[in-house]
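Following up on my earlier thread - several people asked me to post the actual chain instead of describing it. Fair enough. Here it is, all 304 residues.
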Amino acid sequence: MTCGFLSTGSVNTTIPIKVTAATEDHSVKFHQYHLDDMARVRTRKYCELEEREVSAGEIGKGYEVSKDTLVAITDEDLAALPLPTAKAIEIEAFVPYESIDPIRIGQGYFLEPDGQVANKPYTLLRTALERNSKAAVAKFAWHGRERLGLLRIKDNAIILHAMRWPDEIRSPESLAPAPVDLTEDEIGKALALMDALATDDIPKEVAVDRYTEAISDLITAKQTGKEPSHAAEEEAPTGAVVDLMAALQESVQKAKASRGESGEHATVHELPKKKTAAKKTAAKKTTAKKATKKATAKKPRRSA
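Reply from S.P.:
Thanks for posting it. Predicted structure:
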């Protein structure tokens, strides 16, 4: 937990806050060990010149300008940097949520009012953000560098998200596939699959970390001397060309079946074709018949 201030910039208002990580890492951690005797293998700090292990107190930071030149940077140097965000989160602007590219949003932190004096301005800012349906863009210092941040509301708390700078986002242009032709039928079936899998929230069965559960079961089985369960063998892909329409149709049917819905009608009905051409043809035939009748009626009779 870190303490500091939340500043609204031009209004010159500061709110004492505490910063707490908003997420937890529940993944299983592994250690490295020596296969021969099961002893732990550790990372040691080693000085190349003195050829000995050094303690944490003997280690400092440095920037390598060139192979033979190193510039030493102390903690005091970093603390004395002329950054107004060293101990404060400064709000710079308010923007619509939809204007923020999700790829730029990173780790989240809860901002908690620090003390009774902070309760009212904290609540005021939270209420304003909530009613305005906007997010606040801010700058703050974290782990030795200035970062861009995003403030948003979750329940009754304000969350600070670290954000990537614009130049940290790679362009996806070179990764995009070559242009392909898609039929309306193919697009319709893809949309039908999306509709079949649409929900109001992430399903509970989806939000389960099966990998971590499987790792925990594996560790328990080995610890108790039991045979760990193994995944069923799956057939390797044949490499055959996929029939896109058949695959989409099958996916739609499976999605319908998983929800207890009938898969018989899990199709996209094509729009009725325009009958303009048929009408025109019929009109031409009718006109032709009328013209024939008129011509017959006007034709003079031959005398006997």
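The chain is about 30% helix and 25% strand. That should answer part of your original question.
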